[in-house]
Write a structure and sequence with these properties.
By secondary structure, the protein is an alpha/beta fold. The protein is about 30% helix and about 20% strand. The protein contains 19 helices and 28 strands. Helix 1 runs antiparallel to helix 9. The N and C termini lie far apart (about 55 Å). Bound molecules: zinc ion (2 copies).
Length: about 700
């Protein structure tokens, strides 16, 4: 008997094929089954999306082709997983096939049925059973005493349903709370699964180590698996299958892990929930944090969002009672989970008014003096500057030539180490010219500074200072340039931990997650760029970055008393710094939320951006404005505001002109309905010269 199966295959974002295609099968395959199907001249992976139809489809495509093979070694994807994909596709305005297939491990798409069967024939992990000593009476982990705040948070976690916002200062022991939450879940239900998401796994190897250390001994080496883009395709497939089969208890992953197939999912942790890297920046621009909250509700899994500086969206949800807030304001003492006996102090914040310094001062004498004292005591310092390279621009001293990128509306950055000019947007790289390409003047000079120049400058300034043993000072740099090679990051971290570095210069990379116990001074040398930005989220990001950077200082309780955060600014009276000085995130959030409410900005309004790329700015903007004009009369048109098309901040990248249009509404539902109705109009408005367009719902930068 013939069955007609609706099957999803990978389709381009705005192709005419939006939903499932129909294939024939002699067997009634369950919804969620993985199959290989012919598509054009190729054979591709497909997901049976719904139960087979009783009769042939209404509109039978020319000739319905048969399914080529069934991947029957893999259990069908669950209804909840399919609903998550369905929701993500419709909320973020992408095709179902694109989202579903992108959510599966890449190798699954490439392997034939026979190849996959061979791979699956390897012995599977035994089904989970409660191991001895893993129950509530289990011993090892409980040896670490909880602080009173941690115990209170966990008691509420156990008693209430959430979603929870764990508002815990850096060093307050959030990780221990995650570990205990997972532990108590597994003690109650040995077959349950937990998803723990982190912004960037490569930057937080300690977290992975702690989960393996905690759960490996009783649950086996395969109990904790990782899912992130740094893994090879075979590794990713293996981890995905372990999660999908239920063999893995805990999946640790980056944003992509929100789509992991977890048939027994009961708990989702989103660590550093404010981190922008949870928002996918290409393809389906989903927020893994927001999808985690949706998925928790869908599957009855408890959701725990953790941060020292929550996103204003999550903070507001806590204020309104939609999230249950768990507060842990104090740092715990000593290492690991802390003993809770000695609350370590947060570092003192010192502001240096740079408007009182001679022009072009990079390091104020006060800061240099403080650095010198740390070095003499054998302590470490961290200098933070969010700009890599040597200098952001190279300029001619005789004419107005600057190191512009020929392909982008941006300057190429001068990298002194290999004497190149590199565009950080399109990658275009050239040797530094010997003379000005415009007037021939040989005197071309760097303007401004990046981490590379800062490191060089600091080495000069500290040349007279000596370490306790009489040796010269050791300055090191850590940014995307110095950690590009595999293993380089781990090597550099090891050097810092071993005490081989006195002063570490770096980009925001150094503020994330690392547990630098010997660092007692953190300094931001140029914190002003975000204060007067056109991006309304810039202060929020800056505050969180500075709080995180401050959190790097004095992790070791014994040194915490003397630890300091230095900020050089020309605007020391700015309210952002006043809140930072008191480590008062709630005050900062309240002030920002007042401003946002007055201005009608998120979380008090909902936004979407439509972006268009074209050969010319006229075409890009013309497409958007035409689609806007054609939107009149669509559903919910009267409840959204369509702004005129504008060029993007960096208007041209790799010779492509970019424009965007903001769509705003006071109602999330109205915005969603309007976007769904508008999609067809945008698709029909395509014109010559337009390269691509895409909708970004809940954009992080406008
Ligand atoms: Zn010149
Ligand atoms: Zn470029």
């Amino acid at each position: 008997m013939t069955h007609w199966l609706p099957v999803l295959v990978q389709t381009p974002a705005h192709s005419a094929v939006a939903g499932p295609l129909t294939y024939r099968s002699e067997f009634p395959l369950a919804a969620g089954s993985l199959v290989r199907v012919p598509f054009g001249t190729r054979e591709v992976l497909g997901v049976v999306w719904e139960a087979p139809d009783a009769g042939p489809p209404q509109r039978l495509e020319l000739e319905t082709r048969p399914v080529a093979a069934v991947l029957d070694g893999v259990a069908p994807l669950s209804p909840a997983w399919r609903q998550l994909v369905d929701f993500a596709a419709s909320y973020y305005q992408r095709s179902l096939g694109e989202v579903a297939l992108a959510a599966l491990p890449p190798q699954l798409r490439d392997l034939s049925a026979a190849q996959l069967a061979r791979r699956l024939r390897r012995p599977a992990a035994p089904p989970p059973e409660a191991p001895a000593g893993a129950g509530p009476a289990g011993n090892a982990p409980d040896a670490i005493a909880l602080s009173a705040e941690q115990a209170r948070a966990l008691a509420r976690w156990d008693a209430e349903s959430g979603p929870f916002l764990l508002f815990g200062a850096t060093g307050s022991g959030k990780t221990e709370v995650y570990l205990r939450a997972v532990q108590s879940l597994l003690a109650r239900d040995p077959a349950a699964q937990a998803l723990v998401m982190v912004p960037e796994i490569n930057l937080t190897p300690q977290l992975e180590a702690r989960f393996v250390e905690r759960f490996g001994p009783s649950w086996g080496a395969g109990a904790v698996v990782s899912l992130h883009s740094g893994m090879t395709n075979p590794q990713r497939l293996k981890a995905w299958l372990a999660a999908h089969s239920g063999a893995a208890r805990i999946v640790l992953g980056t944003r992509m892990a929100v789509f992991a197939s977890l048939p027994r999912l009961r708990l989702i942790v989103v660590d550093e929930e404010h981190d922008p890297s949870y928002k996918q920046q290409e393809g389906a621009r989903y927020s893994a944090r927001d999808l985690a909250v949706y998925r928790g509700r869908l599957e009855g899994a408890k959701v725990l969002l953790g941060s020292a500086t929550p996103s204003l969206e999550s903070w507001q949800a806590g204020e309104k009672g939609r999230y249950t807030r768990l507060d842990m304001p104090s740092r715990v003492g000593a290492s690991g989970g802390g003993n809770g006996s000695a609350d370590a102090a947060l570092p003192a914040v010192r502001l240096v008014d740079m408007s009182l310094q001679p022009p072009r001062t990079v390091f104020s004498p006060q800061l240099l003096d403080a650095l010198g004292r740390r070095i003499a005591r054998g302590e470490q310092s961290l200098i933070f500057l969010n700009r890599r390279g040597y200098a952001p621009v190279l300029a001619c001293t005789a004419c107005d030539w600057k190191s512009e990128c020929p392909n982008c509306s941006a300057f190429r950055v001068f990298h002194k180490i290999d004497r190149t000019l590199r565009c950080h947007h399109c990658g275009f790289t050239e040797r530094v010219p010997r003379a000005c390409p415009s007037c021939g003047n040989v005197d071309i000079a760097p303007v401004g500074r990046g981490t590379e120049r800062l490191e060089e400058h600091l080495e000069e300034l500290l040349a007279v200072v000596r370490r306790p043993g009489g040796e010269p000072v050791r300055v090191a740099r850590m940014d995307a340039d110095t950690t590009r090679l595999k293993g380089a990051l781990q090597e550099q971290l090891a050097r810092v931990h071993a005490g081989d570095v006195d002063v570490l210069v770096g980009t925001q990379m150094v503020t994330k997650g690392h547990d630098f116990r010997r660092i007692t001074l953190v300094a931001a040398v140029n914190a002003d760029s975000a204060l007067f930005s056109s991006d309304f989220r810039a202060p929020e990001r800056m505050f969180s970055l500075l709080m995180q950077a401050a959190g790097r200082a004095g992790r070791d309780a014994a040194r915490a008393q003397a630890s300091e955060m230095w900020i050089q600014t020309a605007h020391p009276a700015h309210p952002l710094f006043a809140a930072l000085k008191k480590h008062d995130y709630p005050a900062f959030a309240a002030q920002q939320l007042r401003e946002r409410e007055q201005a009608g900005l998120p979380p008090f309004a909902y936004q979407a951006l439509v972006r268009a790329d074209a050969r010319t700015q006229e075409v890009a903007q013309g497409f958007l404005n035409a689609a806007s004009a054609a939107a009149q009369g669509l559903a919910f048109f009267d409840r959204v505001t369509l702004y005129p098309a504008v060029p993007m901040t960096i208007q041209r990248v790799a010779n492509v002109e970019r424009a965007q249009m903001l769509v705003e509404s006071a109602s999330r539902m109205a915005l969603q309905r309007f976007l769904a109705a508008w999609h067809g109009v945008l698709q029909a408005s395509r014109e010559k010269g337009l390269i691509r367009w895409a909708v970004d719902v809940d954009p992080l930068a406008i």
